[in-house]
Amino acid sequence: MDAGEIAGLTPEANPRYHFFRYHHAFLDTTYNSVIFIYSCPMKSKVRERMLYSSCKASVITVGQELGVTAEKVSEVSDAVDLTENFIFEELHPRKPDEKKTFKKPMRPGRMR
Q1: What 3-state class would DSSP assign to 20?
Q2: Alpha carbon of 95 to those of 89, 91, 98: distances in Å?
């Protein structure tokens, strides 16, 4: 399945768990990454959201026992957010820009 197809298979009114194996290339290296995605739409019933949220860790543990170890655990609230770009950035986040430090100006009348 292609990464863009996950959104079409995710219901808009019910929470779901997904283990997705993502084949991709990054920095001249080919990866075969597994990502766990918990989708919890706001349209779902409160009881379902609570149940799925409390069982998430158990599902991940069972996956590990079966040999499926997720490199990244992600959550989305809307199926539309499940795009290939979202999955790629979850696995390879952009590095934050370096902050430039501000040097305080010297007091007037002082020479250095």
Answers
A1: strand
A2: 11, 12, 9
Domain ranges of the chain: 3-91
Mean pLDDT by 10 residues, the chain (112 residues): 76 86 80 86 88 90 89 83 80 70 72 58
Q: Whole-angstrom Cα distance, residue 73 to residue 61?
A: 12
DSSP 69-89: --SEEEEESSGGG--HHHHHH
Residues 6+ apart with CB under 8 A from 33: 21, 22, 24, 71, 72, 91
CATH class, 3-91 region: alpha beta
